[in-house]
Structure of Helix-turn-helix domain-containing protein:
Amino acid sequence: MAANPTPLVNGEKANRREQILAAAAELFAHHGFHGVGIDDIGAAVGISGPALYRHFRSKDAILGEMLNSISRYLLDGGTTWAGRPGTPDDTLAGLVAFHVGFALNHPALITVQERNLANLTDADRKQVRALQRQYVEVWVRAICEAMPELGERQARSAAHAVFGLINSTPYNRHLGDGELAELLSRLALGALRAAG
Amino acid sequence: MAANPTPLVNGEKANRREQILAAAAELFAHHGFHGVGIDDIGAAVGISGPALYRHFRSKDAILGEMLNSISRYLLDGGTTWAGRPGTPDDTLAGLVAFHVGFALNHPALITVQERNLANLTDADRKQVRALQRQYVEVWVRAICEAMPELGERQARSAAHAVFGLINSTPYNRHLGDGELAELLSRLALGALRAAG
DNA sequence: CCTGCTTGTTAGCGCTCGCTAACCTGTCGC
DNA sequence: GCGACAGGTTAGCGAGCGCTAACAAGCAGG
């Protein structure tokens, strides 16, 4: 047998936190933050209730870490794609493909990030909002460069609208992943092209 | 003086239900169904807590009536616009304008309908889902007629994506209403045009 | 072998929530 | 006038919640 596919010997234990975050994301997406109990999250990973407090300070902390890491991932990916060489249209296409990929692979995270900002601690919300704003700004810059005739405020509204379009993946399970990715990319770029 | 603009003499009392529904919509949109208490809703309309039970059987009934009436309104409006004479492109433009108008005038209702389906009673959810499905079908038919080269499944996905685009109004308060309506319509139609 | 750390367990506290009960008041038909 | 009803009030119930306390099992290092 080859070595354990998980990087650590105590793989099970080391990614308990990730396990919990993934299960909580699924539950939060389906029932909303207040609709999910500590016991539900525990049960979903095979432990029961208060054992979660060995890994997280509070229920709010679970949501906080979840949304923080999502926002950071999007911002990092966005800045990376925006920094690649190429025409403005290429950059925009890259951003679209990146966001579509994320939305397709993690529909639950998309749902949680869209719906549960208001349930964060004040401090966490501040952080997450800041990251989200920066991500939007990456898009705004890319849109403005690709279509200079568009004002910055219009570009920002267009960015939010395109996020809404792409983030429809949770309701969009009729098509196969590849086909849906291609369709969403075409729709998003078509919308942006029509903005100018 | 002309007659009272409200249809009944006891106008204040007659639309208590509407008043409650409007306040609850705003609260549900901001904090989620489980994040809002009976007392919060009461306070928002100037009465306190259990007085709500003079007008609604339960908290679930408030959400149920809210989502039912939204879905019915959308379906009615959608079928009306879809039935008007004109080219398929005109029909699509009419549907877009109708949905944009609703999303702009009632961002809270849009938010509630998107996020709180899971909090409904089984019976209510069944009803609402049926209405929503019918509304989607109105769009699917219109899309298929306007771009016959598109399959029905693709059209359904495109419809959901366009809903997501238009329903971004709650995050989209940078532009004036008229300007935003015009931009969203252009984006939506541009996306649909790019689908074919 | 003992010590201590990690990661579980169960019991239970304190609080909040949806909802009911019991009571009060203004308005209207007769 | 007066009874009935519509639409409010406050008090309080039972259940469920987040979280803590107290304890137990497995394992590591000396």
Observations:
- The interface with chain B takes residues 30-35, 115-116, 118-119, 153-154, 156-158, 160-168, 171-172, 174-175, 179-180, 183-184, 186-195 of chain A (CB under 8 Å).
